[in-house]
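Input.
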Amino acid sequence: MAVFRHFRHCTFWKLIVILVLATIMLQTWHMMMLFQLESKVRYKSSNGEIQNEVFPGKNDTSQGQRQETGGSIEYLMKKMWEKVRAANVFDQSGSYVVIDNILEGSNIEENRTQDVTIVTQCSSNHLHHLLTLSKIWNGPISVSVFTHDQDTQFAIYTIAYLIACVKNVSKQVLFHIAIPVQNLPIPFDLHDTTVSCNDRTDTVQSKSEHLNYGVEGVEYPNNLLRNIAIHAAKTSFVFIIDIDTLPSPDLRVSFNVFIKRHKQFIDSSSPIAFVVPSFEVNSKVDISSIHTKTDLKKVWSDSKVRPFYFELCWKCQRYTDYEQWGQLPDFDFLEIGYFVDWEDPWEPFFIAKKSDLPLYDERFRQYGFNRISQVCESYVKGFRFAVLNNAFLLHHEFKVPKNFHAKKEEEQNRNRQLFREFKKELKLKYPMSDRSC
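Output.
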């Protein structure tokens, strides 16, 4: 009987081991099937580089379109899909596949270190904002795109369209992609793509099936996306904003002039955040008509513009001191208006040196405390906060509670607890700092 029990015990554990190994093999096979699908139409050139038969060539206008980046939408989609299939880089948690520079604009200048890159992130249904943002900013932009499942086809198409057909995007924008491991892309037939640059640009404004935070079982990794875009920025300074906001039209040029006048800010060992006051614009107002601070103050006095998050979380923005900012003398150049002592829970948008900036804590996902955690750490690290006199940031439409997804409060409560732990960790990370938040 003892021998039988021993045999039965060994057999049980052997079965457990076999089941575990089988599970691992099935998961591995699943990933290989998704990421190693062969393209239906491709060949190798004489130098061994993979090309595509539908690539029309740099000057080919057979589709009635001018190719700004040297490739058709179909070719660019195939190029991106190959990168997606071959992706093998994951985030620190192992939860997301990360693809840097999935399609770099062909004319992006390499030697612009003394400049500012807009850093932003979004899901595919917000990529159309780049049409206006790239035109207003007219400089480097680094954007991380979150996609998953069947949404990947729309994301890849939209990026390809923007690079092939929009000159500002092809010259200025670096695209990156993050995909949840549990929701890998669903293969699609690239031959179904028949669009060309002759199509109206509103073809990229089709809304994807889900909101950023509204996909059941999929967490939107906003801080991971921000970090990916920061890493890829090639300039000394970065300006981290939401993709549905627009900076004042002359901000990039005037900031670069400002920095040349104040070279001490480049070499200073004391980090500084140049705060850009942010506003919300009534949907009935043409946001592109607001060119200057004078324009802004006029619609502000008519209550068609208000401070950002005015209705949702006024205390999160009020320390910018909008009243003082509005009363600053009207200079025709950019300068520091005043300094602000950071107070919890202030979360301003600001420009900062990339080398000074602490990265975002990637544990924060979905809604709540993702941006303020980084602002909080910047303060503890020793940042000073200087509000710029003429710069501003405009958000499309007023922010109101009814426009948020159903689980907003649940996510915010979860992240609030994480933020409490995060603040305790900062005391260990910066033991010599006399600041806390």
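DSSP finds twelve helices and 15 strands in the chain.
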